[in-house]
Amino acid sequence: MTPTAALIATLLIIAAGFIVFWGRQIATGRDGSAAPGPLHTGIGVLTDFLDTLGIGSFATTTAIYRLKRLVDDRKIPGTLNVGHALPTVAQAWIYTTLVEVEFITLVLLILAAIGGSWIGAAIVTGLPKRAIQRGMGVALLVAAVLMVMTALNRFPGGGEATALTGGRLALACGINFALGALMTLGIGLYAPCMIMVSLMGMNPTVAFPIMMGSCAFLMPIAGTQFIAKGRYDLKASMGLTLGGIPAVLVAAYLVRSLPLGAVRWLVVVVVVYTAVMLLRSAGAVVSVPAASSRQEN
Questions:
Q1: Burial class (CB in 10 A: 0-12, 13-18, 19+), 290
Q2: Which residue range is the domain that position 208 belongs to?
Q3: Which pTM does this prediction carry?
Q4: Theoretical Cys-Cys bridge with 218: which of 15, 94, 117, 232, CB 3.0 to 4.6 Å?
């Protein structure tokens, strides 16, 4: 078995464990009905379809949930990590074998992201509502900036390396650890990872197996913490999963690419609006005189 095949096999074992753990939790009935509505599933189709084509899923999903008021703000980070976990595994399975990257570099960066997500999930599951609103608001503003950079082709050019060693490898692991932790608050890892890889002098194409592998491994692992503590929306997560997996397959094998310039700018506008609304709800943009007299959720 090749190293890449072993990595994919490990990923599938983790995904299977996640499915079993989630299935047992659903069977208890503690989280309510698992049957998603058409809107929940449609959001999964749209966001994971766009994610596979390079738009991203976390920011777009958060924006839709906020605009449609489908998911409580406290449960959005967990819903993202639980619901998008298996579609992301499908993406990683498809794309990890297409781009060559040195195996040790890939594994260490993935392990760093997993460690960050485990600690991040433990913190986020205990945060109050306003702290999560502030965190997601900032996360969405960061995502909007990265989307603009992508649309304007402003990412660093990178180099030709497919491996990292010594201090650069240690620094990259530290950065990916932080990015893994931020994933649990709703900051997507894709664009920041692309910037990191390019600044390290690596070929930008190797960002794809690194970022997809990192997300695919960390999301099921972090997702178990959100599931165990009930800090996610079951129907919304099931909708993302059931709609997202076929959408990934269609985008990867049938569509492959689309002219998404106008869509990307529309997403930027919606994401910025959602970020402002989240920060306003948290009292970070517009102060509400009566806020101090209300008990924080």
A1: exposed
A2: 3-282
A3: 0.82
A4: 117
User: Which is nearest to 119 in space by CA: 174, 65, 40, 180?
Assistant: 180
Highest mean pLDDT among 83-92, 128-137, 247-256: 83-92
290 domain residue, yes or no: no
Quickly tell me which residue has 């960390």 as its tokens: 218
Distant-in-sequence, close-in-space partners of 167: CB < 8 Å, separation ≥ 6: none
Dihedral sign for Cα atoms in the order 264, 267, 269, 272: negative
Mean pLDDT of the chain: 84
Query: Residue 227 and residue 184: Cα distance in Å, rounded?
Result: 13
Task: Look at residue 123 and tell me if it is in a domain.
Answer: yes
- With respect to residue 259, please indicate whether it lies within any of the assigned structural domains: yes
Which two three-digit tokens encode residue 118?
Answer: 């485990």
Residue 98: what pLDDT? Answer: 65
- CA–CA distance from 36 to each of 81, 117, 280 (Å)? 17, 27, 29
> What pLDDT shows up at residue 256?
66
Beta bridge partners of 1: none
Domain count, the chain: 1
Residue entry with tokens 């060693």 = 165
Residue 58, C-beta contacts closer than 8 angstroms, at least 6 positions apart? 80, 84, 139, 143, 183, 186, 187, 188
Q: Distance between terminal CA atoms of the chain? A: 51
Q: For residue range 187-201, list pLDDT tens digits in order.
A: 778 778 878 888 888
Residue by residue, DSSP assigns 198-226 as HHTTB-GGGHHHHHHHHHHHHHHHHHHHH
Quote the DSSP letter at residue 55.
Answer: S
In 3-state terms, what secondary structure has residue 239?
A: helix
Answer yes or no: is 25 within a domain. Answer: yes
Give me the pLDDT at residue 116, please: 93
What is the spatial distance between Cα 217 and Cα 209, in angstroms, rounded to a whole number?
12
